[in-house]
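#structure-requests
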Amino acid sequence: MTTRIVINSRNCYCLPERKRYHSHIVIANAGSNLITKCFILFVFFTLLFLSSEIKAGGISTTCGSLILKDLKIGQTYSLRRVLGKSFSVDYKGDEMTGLKISVQQVVGTSGDYEPVPDINWIRIIKDEFELDPGESVNTDILVQIPYDEKFLGKKYVVNIYPYTLPAGSSEAGLAFGFGLLCKLKLEISPEIPTKEDIENHKKLHLDKTLNVRITPERIFLKNVPQSKEINIKKEYKHFLKIENFSNFVINIKIKSIKPETAGLRPLSPYKSCDDPLFLRPSRATLTLKPNRSKKIALYIKIPKESENKNQYFVLETEISSEIGNIKHYTKVYVETSDIH
């Protein structure tokens, strides 16, 4: 038995449900005022531990079923801003894998919920990932309700489908992957949004998302000489690229960390790096304006006395802005040579 968590501005209660493999988290009144919103998020985090996971093929999520209430026509909603939590997927497999998150139409009704009229109402900000064992990833989802009075008071449902692919593959590998079917339910207010509703929506930045792309997901370096600092961009044509597609200035911190800090596990024959400081970015901090990008050079120097010939490094890039923070991990596999 799972637990359904219901939260709105007037009450908070739990309902038992006889459904398996789905966790139910209900957030109501997305257009409420700031004080109510803070209360909703506080209660949400307090009760989050009650929700169950859905799992398949090494991936799992606590976002099995999400319900957004009191949505106004003509408005756009960020799942991260309304829920205070991103759509997340955890990977506990033992091999590298690709992950894709897609939007799928529901066939038929689901209780009181009809299939969403157009799956283009739903936009997943980052829908593709390359995962290492132990990695967790997050993405935001935007929901855009058209301004049309025929949608007033309607209830809709759409499927969010995260599934694995062989690492570095395309849709052709889908037959060999595993997926989770997550439901996103939308309840539209029966009332036309007022001027106050629209102002509150803007004040809370409910339509804003932190859209930042950091590439590549992985870097492989072979025949790296020891006891010599190597400019990875110059010698191997690899670098970190950060692109800010948001409407906000972002502050960036980059550092090399022990993989275990991020819960990541290396694949054989690689072992966790002897010292994360062997790898460093050319800049540890920077600021990036909206719609700008930056290439960051990387340097590595592995001492001669290091006996670990296959080292696994992780670069942590922390992004902060006025609407929230995110972290991204770039995995670096380094194979040293016998030539010093």
